[in-house]
Amino acid sequence: MNLNATLFFQMIVFFVLGWFTMKFVWPPLTKAMDDRRQKIADGLAAADKGKADLAQAQARISLIEASAKTENHARMVEAEKQATALLDQARREAEAEKARIIAQAQQDAAQEAQRIRESLRSDVAVLAVKGAEQILKREVDAQAHAGLLEQLKAQL
């Protein structure tokens, strides 16, 4: 075999192999690399969009938390006001009830005192009549009268 012919055939085989690779092998490889590159680019874009969405969500969460804290504080203040108002109202009602009970007790005490006075007057009148009756039945004697008056004082 001739060295020139061998080199010539090797060149032809090399060019055929190069043409075959460029025509049938290279396009699917470049297409696969382009698809992979596009997937990576889409993934990075989605990651950036996710980061942006996360930042927006965190901002909204911060706003919602601030709003909730403010609303909670307002509700606490309102609840404290209502509690104070209820306590004041209960205190006023208790004071009114206390005054009513005291007035009723004073009225009852005054009526009881009046009833006792009336009873005492009738008892004193009965005793006076009994004393006069006993004085009139006996003879007039100063010592006897003094003794009867002492008995009346002891009964009163």
From TrEMBL:
The keyword Ubl conjugation does not apply. Its main location: membrane. It comes from the Bacteria. It is a single-pass membrane protein. GO terms for molecular function: proton-transporting ATP synthase activity, rotational mechanism; proton-transporting ATPase activity, rotational mechanism. It is found in: Cell membrane; Endomembrane system. Keywords: ATP synthesis, Cell membrane, CF(0), Coiled coil, Hydrogen ion transport, Ion transport, Membrane, Transmembrane, Transmembrane helix, Transport. Residues 76-123 form a coiled coil. InterPro entries: ATP_synth_B-like_membr_sf, ATP_synth_b/b'su_bac/chlpt, ATP_synth_F0_bsu_bac, ATP_synthase_B_chain. Pfam families: ATP-synt_B. GO terms for cellular component: endomembrane system; plasma membrane; proton-transporting ATP synthase complex. The chain crosses the membrane at residues 6-26. Belongs to the ATPase B chain family. F-type ATPases have 2 components, F(1) - the catalytic core - and F(0) - the membrane proton channel. F(1) has five subunits: alpha(3), beta(3), gamma(1), delta(1), epsilon(1). F(0) has three main subunits: a(1), b(2) and c(10-14). The alpha and beta chains form an alternating ring which encloses part of the gamma chain. F(1) is attached to F(0) by a central stalk formed by the gamma and epsilon chains, while a peripheral stalk is formed by the delta and b chains. HAMAP family: ATP_synth_b_bprime. F(1)F(0) ATP synthase produces ATP from ADP in the presence of a proton or sodium gradient. F-type ATPases consist of two structural domains, F(1) containing the extramembraneous catalytic core and F(0) containing the membrane proton channel, linked together by a central stalk and a peripheral stalk. During catalysis, ATP synthesis in the catalytic domain of F(1) is coupled via a rotary mechanism of the central stalk subunits to proton translocation. This is ATP synthase subunit b.
